[in-house]
Amino acid sequence: MTQGKVTFRPSDEVDFVIVGSGAAGGVLAKELSSNGFRVVVLEQGPYLTPADFSHDEVKVWVQHQLTNNPSVQPTTFRKTAQDKAQRQYSVMYGRCVGGSSVHFTANFWRFHEIDFIEHSKVGDIPGAALADWPITYADLEPYYSKVEWEIGVSGLAGASPFDPPRSKPYPMPPLPVKGNGVVFERAARKLGYHPFPAPMAILSQPRAGRSACVNCGFCLGFGCEVGAKSTSLSAAIPVAEATGRCEIRPNSYVHKIETDKNGRATGVLYFDAKKNTHLQKAKAVILSANGAETPRLLLLSSSPQFPNGLANSSGFVGKHLMPNSGAMAYGVFEEPLNDYKGFCVSRIFHDFYQLDHQKLGIYGGGGLDARFDLTPAAFAMSALPPNTPKWGKDFKKALHHNFTRTLEIFCHGTSLAVESNSFSLDPDVKDAWGLPALRMTYRDHPNDLKMMEWMSARAMELLDAAGATSKWAQPIQEQQFAVHLLGTCRMGNDPKTSVINADHRTHDVPNLFLCDGSSLVTSGRGQPTMTIMALAFRAADRISDLTKRGEISG
Amino acid sequence: MKSSQNARRQFLLQSAGAATIAWTNAQWPSILAAAQHAQESAKSAGKPHFEVLTTEQARNVEAIAAQIIPSDDLPGAGEAGVVFFIDRALKTFASGMLPVYEKGLVEVNQLTTQKFPTVKTFADATPEQQENIMTILGERLNPPAGGARRRRQIASADFVQTIWQHTIFGFLADPEAGGNRDYAGWKAIDRDPAHSFSPPFGFYDKDYPGWQAASVETEKK
Fold first, then answer.
1. Nearest CA of chain A to the CA of B204: how many Å?
2. Of A217, A326, A377, which is closest to B149 when you measure between CB atoms?
3. Distance of alpha carbon A516 from alpha carbon A22, whole angstroms
4. Which end of chain B, N or C, is more open, meaning fewer C-beta atoms within 10 Å of its C-beta?
């Protein structure tokens, strides 16, 4: 680590303690420390640097180097509240400094206007708890631009006719096109759609002391060895640390928010690497622990004063989980695409962003991308045509022929909010620290499954139009595994039906703020990180203002 | 390209020559350290003796792996050193799975003798006999259920699924993981072992004219 970084003692009452250093926590740390506040960020995972990253699939997929490890952090799953949850690896999130932004694909789509006002536009949807956001796209727009310029997004402004208005162009051109992008673009044009260069949080040019992408091909699931992926780790945390006012404290697992008799937060209790407990004192607490761990932490912080968990007078903590819907089709082409080189995605389209409910009977919508996110072993285990032998010379022949010739069309879409879809504390299973495990209760809204069937059929048409020599779609199944952890402490103006207000302040505890995927009211169309970062930039402005006006100190 | 070290070194040279020079100068000692570490791990994994498996177990693991990914004009599990990868796995990331191997190998050998009474172990069987047994074992390689597109890890107590998975990792994961010796696996799937690439990447992007907004005719469609 660099010399001269600030450290605080747990007994120092800092201005803010932020739980989590991912897409939201990293940005909040950068902004608040830049605004003059003293900040401690507690991250449960290790502080890895590009020197720790590698192309080792075993480390990433089996040893969970960058993500939560189900052997010490078990999760459970059930479909409905009537079922008994079974131990099952049901949630994956980044567990290292930088959080999930370290290993993500880096698709960086803005939400569109409709995502914030869908309830007003379409009305109630049976079986769903659709609500408008307390903020609009226009409120968030300046912060989307901030993400693009300060974190680093490559793209081409105005390239999609469906894009919402923007105040600034992208700071750098799109990444180069890949084979999958070329064939996808041609096919999409043939079918009358509007493909365009994917906005990606990966540098196409060197910027701010970081390298441009070198197209190594180990992107989704992996940390970037050259810092080209625009993550909290590469783009936000170094700025926070350089202020001399922010300490990133890794291997610190927060398990309780402490409150005083007036119901104000006084700090957080956490385990260090040796499982010793400390209390980090702070004037205000911000949870950016992700849409699973933020609600879990609130529920773990119940007390006689807050018997249902902290900040949970609405009963909405942990509810309305939206993991986004997804469908996948694969195509094999005659000539080598060699899509194993480079980042995953170079072309997308948004023609289906808002599907015609009258015509199709489907709410919400989505976006399609052409990608190759399969590293060699992952490819061999999951991406050969369904009837390919799994061993022997035909297995090997298929690997040889298909590895360089396969692409995927990924359909990303809405998850409708359903109250019973939730994270809660498992009554029986404990983690390695003796705390109740995360329990996921989930069943896709029938609309989302219907939409994925519809999109999957469009993806197959695209593969035909692209001239794939063979193609197949992954069957649409009910999801039991979530990586997009959205909506579980939703934002709103009414304390009865939301957990935080538009300033990210909890309705119940005046100096407790939540900002991460849990804040989202709708799920967008499948690419949440851009919005999570934009919310964090906005939250930092709001929180700084409130603090300077003396509205946070009690 | 002979080793992971060389691929990394080439990557460093390329980086140093490119626009990334400022970044590389600041970072390259740490990359080199990581590369050296990887090289050491790869070397120690390649030693021709077994630390966990008995010689007899290793013979059978090797024979099963060679049935999963046979050698032909392109390298197979044997050339990639998959059995050494698995031996090391049983000491490291899969240290709890030795019982699965011990029990599984006994069962496979029993099945072999049951089918071919004069043959004692899978490794002793003829290639045709081995294929015959593999056809039975291969039934256990059905895809996992549960809509887990993004979930790569398939933890399993089933021996056939486990050795299948380990064989693939040992064949295709970066040599840093201890297998894929001399990039044998990547040769077999036509993956260039270089550490960085420049466009055009493949056939279809070679003559790409550059992105243009949809024409009026397309719009009318």
1. 5
2. A326
3. 9
4. C
pTM across the whole model: 0.93
Q: Which residue type, as a one-letter code, is found at position A277? A: T
* Residues in chain B, pLDDT under 70: 1-48, 143-156, 215-221
Instruction: Please list, residue by residue across A209-226, b when 16 or more beta carbons sit within 10 angstroms of its beta carbon and e when fewer do.
Output: ebbbbbbbbbbbbbbbbb
Report residue B32 as tokens.
Answer: 């080199």
Cα(A190)–Cα(A18) distance, rounded to whole angstroms? 49
CB contact under 8 A, B201 and A338: yes
Q: Mean pLDDT in runs of 10 for chain A (554 residues)?
A: 77 98 98 98 97 95 94 97 96 97 97 98 96 98 98 98 97 98 98 98 96 96 96 98 98 98 97 98 98 98 96 98 97 98 98 96 97 96 94 98 98 97 98 98 98 98 98 95 97 98 98 98 97 98 97 80
Q: Which residue of A has its CA nearest to B135?
A: A391
- What end-to-end distance do the CA atoms of chain B give, in Å? 50
Cα distance between residue A259 and residue A303, in whole Å: 9
Q: State ipTM.
A: 0.95
Closest by Cβ to B173, choosing from A206, A342, A377: A377
Which tokens belong to A361? Answer: 């009977």
Which chain A residue lies closest to B198 (C-alpha atoms)? A215
Tally the C-alpha atoms within 13 A of residue A46's C-alpha that lie toward its C-beta: 11
B141 to chain A: which residues are within 8 Å by CB?
A: 390-391
Rounded Cα gap, residues A350 and A160, in angstroms: 8
Q: Show Cβ contacts of residue B159 under 8 Å, excluding neighbours closer than 6 positions.
A: B100, B101, B103, B104, B105, B107, B108
Nearest to B198 among A63, A174, A215 (CB): A215
Cβ neighbours, 10 Å, residue A478: 12
Which residue on chain B is closest to A334 by alpha carbon?
B203
CB-closest option in B26, B168, B197 to A377: B168
Radius of gyration of chain A measured on its C-alpha atoms = 22
Q: Which of A53, A341, A474, A477 to mutate to test the interface with B (most CBs of B within 10 A)?
A: A341
Q: Compare all CA atoms of chain B with the CA of A327 and give the residue at the minimum distance.
A: B149
